[in-house]
Design goal:
Protein name: 3-phenylpropionate/trans-cinnamate dioxygenase ferredoxin subunit
Pfam family, one: Rieske
Bound molecules: FE2/S2 (inorganic) cluster
Keywords: 2Fe-2S, Dioxygenase, Iron, Iron-sulfur, Metal-binding, Oxidoreductase
Organism: Prauserella marina
Strand order of the largest sheet: 1-9-8-4-3-2
Radius of gyration: 14 Å
InterPro entries: Rieske_2Fe-2S, Rieske_2Fe-2S_sf
Length: about 120
């Protein structure tokens, strides 16, 4: 599995989010309670960056575009319009560095998933 460096621990305030750009853009979240989470960066409703635009509410991230909510412990959508779960990734904090272990990344370069990714 691929592991990427995400950020330094002090780059996110509690209750904050950020996006790690790359072949698989990843959103990293630090809750007010000090829990780290990571997911695919885009909302599953439409293409919209949760790491850059999302708002944390406890253990949930709210997509401000249409107000979908996702449970960061499971990735499950908590309300419409989102119906597809976020793909979650494992976060590893080592010293002052935050790393993300990408789920499913060992299935080679399936990031650009063909014609279905085009359009709309
Ligand atoms: S794009 Fe996130 S709720 Fe619509």
């Amino acid at each position: 599995m691929a592991r990427i460096f995400a950020c330094k621990v002090d780059e996110i305030e509690p209750g904050g989010t950020l996006t790690v750009e790359g072949a698989t853009p990843v959103a990293v979240y630090l809750t007010e309670d000090g829990d780290w989470f990571a997911s695919d960066d885009s909302c599953t409703h439409e293409q919209f960056s949760l790491g850059t635009e999302g708002d944390l509410d406890g253990d949930e991230v709210v997509c401000p575009l249409h107000m979908a909510r996702f449970d960061l412990r499971t990735g499950k959508p908590m309300c419409f319009p989102a119906t597809i779960a976020l793909r979650m990734h494992e976060v590893v904090v080592e010293g002052d560095e935050v790393h993300v272990v990408l789920t499913g990344s060992d299935e080679s370069s399936a990031d650009a998933s063909g014609p279905a990714a085009m359009g709309a």
